[in-house]
Amino acid sequence: MSWLHALKHTARSGLTVERQRLDPLVAVRAAAGLALVVGAALYFFGPAVAASSAFGAFQAALATFQRSWRTRPVLALASGASLAVTTFVGYLTGAHPALFVSLLAVWTFLAGLAWAIGPTAGMIASSNVAIMLVTVTLPTSVAAAAGHAAMILVGGLVQAVLIVLFPVRRWGAQRDALADALAAEADYARRLRHDPVAPFDPEPLMTARSAAAITPRQARRRPAELHGTRGLAERIRPVLASLADPALGVPAEGEQRARVRELLAAAGSTLDAAARAVRHGEPVAMSPAARAVLAVPKEGAVLTGPARRAESRLISLLRDVIETAQGSGTTNSPRPGRGAGEADSADDTAYRTARRLARSAARRVARVPENRADPHDHLLRPTVPGLVPVALRAMRAELRRDSPVFRHAVRVAVVSAIGYAVGASLPLGHGYWAPMAAVMVMRPDFSQTYSRAVARFGGTLLGVGLATGLLQLTHPDTRLSAALAVGCAFLMFLLLRAGYAVTQVCVSGYVVFLLGMGGLQWTQTVPERVVLTLAGGLLAMLAYAVYPAWETPRLRTRLAGWLVADGRYATAVLQRYADPAGAPRDAVREALLATREARVAWQDALERAANEPVRHRGLSRAAADDAPHALAQLARVAMLMEAHLPSRDTSPVPAAAALAQALRADTEAAARAVRERRAPRWEAFRAALESWDAGAAGDATADDRFVRKGAGLLLAALNELTDALDAEGPRPQGGTARTAA
């Protein structure tokens, strides 16, 4: 993509207004906290203290709107406390320009590294630096600076207290994440009826897993319906795929296929019912048709062999989903697998008792401060103090020249210092607008930085224009200016998901009215804000062009990482068949999670690379389309085999050990070949498969035949990857491939 096209695309993206669901109650609560802080500070201390406390309450409220699984009071307190420390330290050096610029560069560099912890930490750290540039100009002494910092902390505390006193939909984000995962699987089940090899995006399951990680204190308060359902949903997905797939399941047509379609439709209906129940905290309402289909056949079962086992697993898992989604255990419909008027059998009673014992054990584990728990019920998240060493390790790991986060930290530190010097040298006053704009728009990737720069300037221009017009019409006093500032903040909280340009319109009006509350006329703030915001945005855009962190050249590395993760996943599955009793219990699960993370990393990288003005140095468009399809197929075959993993007392499949060893060696060598622009080869895995075929006996077991068929599908997926990448690298000569120049 050329620079002209990239600039057009990012500008259009930055100015896009999105239609999103509004949360008016949350916006009212945040604005009420801001109004309380500003009103009290204005009444007791005056406009200057009110302005600084307003920034604290505003920043704390903004932090609670971020996409984080931390509790909102914790986010508000963390934001208020960090901003208070930042502003106080900044004021201590504010009287010495050289020292302040040095501190600004160091502080901004650390804020840039904070993106290694996560987007929420990066946003809070960047906002702290930006607001510090404004608040350090308000105090007149060290004591006054301490007072301003205390009021900023009070602003965060007030927001946290309001969240505790007036909760809006407790655990709502976790409910939505789990319900979205169940709904995604329901949609997947329905699509499998018509397309037996339909793709599935694992991102909803990954989001639900992130949402399920909670602190021990949260574990004691989490609603019962959020216990265990996510783990069951994870186990349902491979069973659905194995039932539908004609290669390892039932034939494409016939009586068995009709039964599979009925099961998939019933599974979709049941998962949708569970999703609605989890989202709204209601009982699960199953349809009678789904109950009839999922009733355990007493005799005359249509499916046989592995498909019959998959059917039994699906019915059992859906029964568990219904039970766990009920939360309290009450229901207005019988569980699948039992008739409408039948009472609990002895097995059902034993099953309920076992589930209660499992949940009790999970709650006991939740009280233990260790990173282990029921793998399908509870994932521990470190507390805020426990997060400190984790955050430091994450930031230290990014201290390398090829890291996008490190490059972002260097860019933002240099730009903030240069921007501050440029703003101070211009005869406009309030020179901090330039570095503040640069810090707020800069992100670790190209697309977000440029789109936010355009959106910030456009939003600022419109926002200050509207605010100035309102000032000219109303000529507000201090109290009315404070009320108008709170009104602008409310609109920003309400429209936060509508796009960055929309929020900047509201923020610009908020700042104009807030500074007007302190006695500054619009003629003293509006022109310089527009000019210096433009200067800061241009500096941010120029910095990325001079010192970029392009994703395009790293596409092959991302693809190689996905290949290694897929190979380890398939290897772990084969090892379970080779040694059902001795293979590590969690190896398959951990490998699956690594595969999902590698796939999402590839998709994010490909999306970022598509908008970069970089001459092609990664993958061609055709290879970028075909290679991921082959890797997705590789992981899919491994997942189908995982759906039929043998129990620990099952006889092993000896040949699977040689296949696993060969596959691991081939995929690791292939990953190196992908990075070096050579087409991968699979000689060891093909030789192991041919050796098995040559020595196969006539009395092979069902598991032997199943693994042999699955291994053939794995090889087909690997060959598809070779075909996709073969044209990308140099052609082999004399039986060997040349290394890329």
Automatic annotation (TrEMBL):
Keywords: Membrane, Transmembrane, Transmembrane helix. InterPro entries: Memb_transporter_dom, YccS_N. Residues 84-189 form the Integral membrane protein YccS N-terminal domain. It is a multi-pass membrane protein. It comes from the Bacteria. Residues 325-350, 361-380 are annotated as: Disordered. Residues 419-542 form the Integral membrane bound transporter domain. The chain crosses the membrane at residues 31-62, 74-92, 98-117, 149-168, 409-433, 453-473, 480-496, 502-523, 530-550. Residues 367-380 have a biased composition (Basic and acidic residues). Pfam families: FUSC-like, FUSC_2. Residues 325-334 have a biased composition (Polar residues). It is found in: Membrane. This is FUSC family protein.
